[in-house]
Amino acid sequence: MIIPGLSDSLKALSQNWKQGVKNVKCLYIACGQNRKIKAGIDFNEKQYIKLKKELEEISGEKIHGSRVEEAIKIYNGHRKKMIEFSELASTHPVTVSPSSRCMVLESSYMMDKAEHLKLLEELNESLRNMPEEKWKGGKVVTTGAIANSKSVLELFEKNKLAIVGDEIMHESVHFRTLADEGTGNPIRALAKRIADAEGCMLLYDPEKKRADLLTDKVKKHNADGVVYLLTKFCDSDEFDCPIIRNRLNKEGIKNVLIEVDQQMTNFEQAGTALQTFADMIG
Q1: Dist CA 151 CA 246 (whole Å)
Q2: Are residues 97 and 212 both part of a single domain?
Q3: Of 162, 193, 168, nearest in space to 91 by CA
């Protein structure tokens, strides 16, 4: 089990795992948060080298640089197609509902990347061959840590809210940053990818660039507003939330806050908030 130390909850999980799950080894990765300077990239590279050695011990096989480089190319190709899918979904809101959009994005975590890439290419080709669709409802950009609650996504559909873009950590934020290819040092390229990433709530970002990225996406897709899906007890997002929403308000972008969690069973409050928001932007 690989657990990165990107948040206080993950740090605690790594230690609890070591104590509670004795038969499955925990491979912990610390993350240098001052990630853009040379020292930060050096530190994160060393963490990946340590992980590589631990994986070699478990598998009994040497992980050669050529294999890492090959994996980078596959993952980069997949990320590009995920970006393309997100763009195509924004112009086909009738065919690609919030729920089906989420299933495409989330399935990428469950499948072999090469296999998922093949299916993704076929899907994108089908969408490219379809005319752009008119949407009789609100168009929104989402932000937060995760947005995979089936019941919450059904509330979007019930209130005729199409998701035309996102700044969700589990979605676009995860796949939009590519790793450098052909560097001769693929492990360092992976460490540099952390330095290149922007808008991630778990990475040091004093300028809070997520606000800029959200504003740009709203304008690009001519969206009517932003739905902030705040995961309860996620300190990183709770700290960001007032800063991001203040910026959206300053830009005149309508937004609504919906609290979500993984054990959510009552959706009345979320439904009322989304219905009110849909009426406000309609």
Answers
A1: 28
A2: yes
A3: 162
Given this model, what pLDDT does residue 246 score? 97
Would you say the pTM of this structure is higher than 0.90? Answer: yes
Q: Out of 3-7, 131-135, 264-268, which region has the weakest mean confidence (pLDDT)?
A: 264-268
pLDDT in tens, 19-34: 999 999 999 999 998 9
Instruction: Answer yes or no: do 10 and 112 share one domain.
Output: no
pLDDT digits (tens, 9 = 90+) for 206-234: 999 999 999 999 999 999 999 999 998 89
Q: Residue 267: which pLDDT band, with cuts at 50, 70 and 90?
A: confident
Helix (H) or strand (E) holding 231: strand 225-231
Buried b (16+ CB within 10 A) or exposed e, 14-53: beebeeeeeeeebebbebbbebbeeebbebbbebbeebbe
| pLDDT in the model for residue 282 | 80
Identify whether residues 125 and 26 lie together within a single domain. Answer: no
Residues 129 and 12 reside in one and the same domain: no
The greatest distance separating any two alpha carbons of the chain, rounded to the nearest whole angstrom, comes to: 59
Instruction: Give the CATH number, domain containing residue 38.
Output: 3.40.50.11890
User: How far, CA to CA in Å, does 187 sit from each of 63, 70, 78, 193?
Assistant: 11, 12, 19, 10
Long-range Cβ contacts of 125-134 (<8 Å, 24+ apart): 127/85, 127/88, 127/89, 127/92, 127/95, 127/96, 128/88, 130/92, 130/95, 132/91, 132/92, 133/91, 133/92, 133/93, 133/94, 133/95
- β-strand partners of 28: 3
Spatial distance between the Cα atoms of 146 and 109, rounded to a whole number of angstroms: 13
